Amino acid sequence: MSKRINAIDLNVYYGDFLAVEGVNIDIEPRSVTAFIGPSGCGKTTFLRTLNRMHEVLPGARVEGQLLLDDDNIYDTAVDPVTVRSMVGMVFQRPNPFPTMSIRDNVLAGYKLNGTRLSRSQSDQVVEEALKGANLWNEVKDRLDKPGSGLSGGQQQRLCIARTIAVKPDVILMDEPCSALDPISTLAIEDLINELKDTYTVVIVTHNMQQAARVSEKTAFFNIAGTGKPGKLIEYDETTKIFSNPSKKDTENYVSGRFG
Amino acid sequence: MAHANETTSPPSAGPAAPSGPVRKKTLRQSDRRGVFGDKLFSGLAMAAGIAILVLLAFVALFLSSSSGRALYSEDEGLIVGQFLQYAMPLVGGTIIASIIALGLAAPVAIGVALFISHFAPPRASRSIGYVIDLLAAIPSVVYGAWGMSFLAPAMVPVYRWLHENLGWFPLFAGNPSGTGRTILTAGIVLAVMILPIITSVSREIFIQTPKLHEEAALALGATRWEMIKMAVFPFARAGIISGIMLGLGRALGETMAVALVLSGGALTASLISTGNQTIPAEIALNFPEAGPGSERQAQLIAIGLVLFIITLVVNMIARWIVSRNKEFSGAN
Amino acid sequence: MSTPTQETTTPPPPKAQNSLTQGTLPRWTWAAMLAGSVAVAAALAAALGAAFGAESFLMPLWVVLVPVIYLPAMLILQWVRINKRKAIDGFWKNLVYLAFLIALLPLVSVIWSVVSVGLPGLLAPGFLASDMSGITGRIDQETMETGGDVLGGIRHAIIGSLVITLAATVISVPIGLLTSIYLVEYSRGSWLSRAITFFVDVMTGIPSIVAGLFAAAATAWFISTASSLGLMAARPYTMGLTAAIALSVLMIPVVVRTTEEMLRVVPNELREASYALGVRKWRTILKVVIPTAISGIASGVTLSIARVIGETAPILVTAGFVVNANWNLVSGWMATLPVYIYRQFQNPIAPAATEPSEQRAWAAALVLIIIVMLLNLAARIIAQVFAPKKTGR
Prior knowledge:
The structure holds three protein chains of three kinds. By secondary structure, chain A is α/β, with parallel strands linked by helices. Chain A has helices at residues 43-49, 80-86, 102-106, 108-111, 119-132, 136-139, 152-165, 182-195, 208-214, 238-243, 248-254; strands at residues 5-14, 17-27, 32-36, 60-68, 71-72, 87-90, 170-174, 200-204, 217-223, 230-237. In chain B, helix 8 (224-253) runs antiparallel to helix 11 and helix 10 runs antiparallel to helix 11 (295-329). Chains in contact: A-B, A-C, B-C. Chain B: The chain crosses the membrane at residues 40-63, 83-116, 128-159, 179-198, 231-252, 300-322. Chain B: Residues 91-318 form the ABC transmembrane type-1 domain.
C-alpha cells in the first residue's frame, strides 16, 4: 500500500521564476515526514509537486526526477490524474463538496470518476473510511446530511476520510490544522499517528510543536530572501532537528531566533 | 472507467485502510477513455467560444453584404450621398430621443440608487431594489403601449401651453401635436425604460463603497451628503458612467416604444410637433412591408448597420472611461 | 453630566435645554413646511393657470409646484436657523427622496394602466383558449355596437412565444454555458479568451432590431444558397427558427456573462479537492463546479429567458404575423405575444372600431407581464432552492 518518495535534483518553476531549487529527499514508506520553514520558503510548493497538483496553476513546471518507489511521476508517459489517484492530498482549509452529503463526500473519489459501486460495497467503503478517519461514531446517524454542516475539525476529518477511501499510497497534508481549534487539532494529530501504519504521510506545518509531536523525520526549508528560490536546508530525524540540528539556519529557526 | 473492472476486495492492510473496490496501481497505465473525455470536453468548450466569434463575424458580414444595394446601384453607380441623405435625419432623430431620455433618466436614476443604498430604511431597500429589477424586465412593447395610450394624450395640453407661452424657443416652436405623439413623449417613455437599468448598475456600485471610507468620513463630522460626496461618488464614478452608457445603448437601440409612441416625420428641432424618426422604429415600421431582396430592404439593413456601429462606439467609450477611471476609484 | 464623586448621590436637576440639541429644528418642521408648500402651490397654480391659460392641467401643475416651493423653503429655513452645511445636507436628502417619488410615478402608472385596462379583456371568455382566425373587422364592429363580449384570443401568440423562446434557449444555453466554461476553466488568459470576452461585450450591445435583421439576412442567404445547390426547395425565410436565431444573438451574451460570473465564484479549493482525488478535469467541471454553481446559472438563464420573451422587434422582422396557431418552427409564420400586442395597436382589426383590438392588446400585455414576473420569481426560487445547503446539524 505504501510507497517510498525520492526526489532527485528537483527544481520547481512558476513561469520563469525558480520557486524551489535542487531538492534531494528520500521519504520512507509508512512514516510521517514534516516540512517546516518560514512562509514563502517553498514547502507547500514542493508538497504540491509530489502529486503534480502544482500543474493546476498556469505556467508551473518541474525539472528533475521524482520517484514513487521506482517510477518517475514526471515521465512524459505518465498521466497526472493517475499520480493523483495514488497520492492523496488534504488541504489547509477543510473543503468538503458543498453539494454532497457526508456519505457522498466519502465516496466522491468513486462517484466523480463514474465508478459504479454496489450498495454493500459503498456502505463498506464509507464505514471503513470514516472509521479510519475517527469520524464514524460522530456522523453514522446523519450520513445523508450535507458535509458542510459539520464543525471545522469534523470537516477536515471528512476530507481525510474522502482521501483514504480511494486507497492512495501517500497522503499529503498542507497545514491541515491551521484553520482548526486546539481540540480538533489534537484529533487530527492522533489520526495522523494511526495513518502512518498504512500510508506514507507528508505534512506541511507552521507549528513546530506539531512537527515534533507527529513526525519521525523533519525537513527544514528556507529562503535566502524575497525573489530567491526556496531550498531544502536540512532533512533528518525529528528529534535531531529539534535538539541538535547540524545547520545554523535550522537552529535559529527551531529555537525561535529567526527573523 | 478503467478502474471499474476490478471490484474484488483484497484483505485490508491495516486499521485505516478500507477494503472494497480498489484501483489499479500502475503509474504508467492511463485510461484512454478518460484522456479522450478531457480532450473532447475542452475541445467542445473552445468550439463554443469560437462559434460566438463566428456568429459575430456573420452578423457583420451579412449586415454589410445585404446593405450593399443601398450604397451601390447598377444604374447609378455609387449612391452613398443618396443613402446619407436618407440616414442622417434618422441618426439625428435617434440621438435627440436618446439625449432626452438620458437627460431625464440619469439624475433621477442616480437619486433613486442613492435612496436605495443610503437613505431608505435597510429593510425597505431590499424590496425596493427588487421592484426596480422587475421594472427593468417589463417588455418594451408594454411601455410603448402605455406611452401611446396614456402619456401622449396627457401631454397634449402641456405641449399646447408650451407652444403658446414659449413658442419663440426653437424647441417649442412649430405646430403642437394634437395627439401628443412627439419625440419628447417618446423620449420620456425611453427615460422611464432606461431608469431601472441605470438605477440598478449605480446601486450595485454604491453598495460596494467600502464601509471604512464612509465611516472615516462620518467620524470626521461630515454630514450624510458630505460623506456621499467624499466617499461614495469618487468610488462609484466609473460605475455610474458605465450604467449611464448602458442606458444610452438601450435607448439608442430601443425599437417598439418609439415605434408605438412617435408618429414620425422629417427631422425637426421642435420637440412638441410631429416629426423626427429613430433608426430602430424606422426599420420596424417598414421592414415587414419591404420585399425580400429589394433595394428598400437593403436600405433598412444599411441603417441597421449604422445603428450597430453607433451603439458599438458608445459601448467602447463607456469601457474606455471605466478603464481610465479604474485606478482612481479605489475599486481595486 | 454628573460628576463621579461619592458624596453626590442625587443626580443634578435636568437642564432645561440639552446642549446637544442646539441647532436642530423640532421634528414636526418638515410636515408643517410641506403642508404650507401644498397650500402655497395650490394658490400659485390657480393664479398661474388663470394668467397663462393652463386651466387644462391644474392638478399636474399643482403637484409640480409643491417640491419647487418646499425644497428652497426648507433650505432657507435650515440655513438661517442652523447652518449652511446642515441645510445643504437636508436639501440633497430631499432631492433624493424626490427622485424616488418621481421614479415611482410613471412606474405605478404603467402597472396600473396595464392591470386596470387589461383585466376585463383577460377575463373575457375564451381569451386564452382561442386564436384570431375568423375575427374580422365586421365582428369587432358588431361587438362595439351590441356591447357583447370581445371575441378572439391569444392562444396562437402564447404558443408562438413559448416555441420560439424555447428554441432560442435550446440554441443559446449550450453555447453560452460551454463558452463560459472555456473562459473560466480552460483559457488561462489566452488571446482567444480575451477576444471572446471582448466580442461577448460587443454582442451585449447589439440592438435587438439589428439582431433581427441579421437573422433575416442570414437565413435568407442560407436558404437561397442551399436551394441553388439543390439541397432544399426555396422557401420564405420568415419562420419561427429565424426568430429563434435572432433571440439567440441577444441571449447568448447574457448567458455567457452570468454563467461566467457564477463559475468564477466557485472556490478553487473544490476543484483542487477533486483533482487530488484523481478526478479528471472534465468530470470535475461537470460534477463539482457546475453543481456548485447551478443555482446561479439556472436563475441567470431564467432571467435571460424573461428578457427575450418580451422582445418584439427581432420577431417582427423574422417571424411575420399570423392569426392562428403554428407549432412548426421551420415552416410558416408565427405570432408571439409582444408582436400580437404591437399589431393590435398599430393595425387594429377594425380601423373604425379600435376598442376591441385595444382591449385584446392590453389583456395580452397583462399576460406577458405576468409571464415575465413569474419567470423572475422562478429565478429567485431556483436560486434559493438549488443553492448548496449550508446547514445539516
